[in-house]
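Supplementary Text 2. Reproducibility record for the structural model of the 178-residue chain.

All settings were left at their defaults, and a single model was retained for analysis rather than an ensemble. We include the record here because the model underlies the residue-level annotations in Supplementary Table 4.
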Amino acid sequence: MSRYENKPLAVLPAVQVSLKDRDVVVKGAKGESTFRCPENTKVTQAAGVLTVEREDKNKSTGSLVGLTYRMLQNMIEGVTTGFQKDLDLTGVGYRMAMKGQILNLQLGFSHDINFEVPKGIQIELKPNHVTIRGTDKQLVGQVADKIRGFRPVEPYKGKGFKYSDEVVRRKAGKSGAK
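Retained model, structure tokens:
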């Protein structure tokens, strides 16, 4: 049995949830999210509480119940408070600038990198710092990882993008010939 089967998920009064067949639509102050529930799972709503149930007793369906519960929980959190990832950029001559919905990155390559920001994501730039915000947890993480992937932090000088809470283990360089 899944830990989340029949476990109530509280819905805040500021959040509106509507159920249509297998589609769940969550609306809040920050926006709207939609999720299509997997087969053999059922979401019910009663008195400001959502519950996720399974329609059969397969082990894999229990996993889908947990997935559905967490997706609904993230959707409710996303439309009320939103999600955020912070990246720090270290390196001499590395620059960032926003041009409309295009993030322009100068990272020491022969050409600039122009990254088109997806719909639903807001990017805020400060000197050597990027803040990525949105209502979809998966999309925020995906965009942060994509930006970090252009120039990941390297362990010798610590140059490149790193998450603000990431700890980079530094390596010693080559020791000179004696």
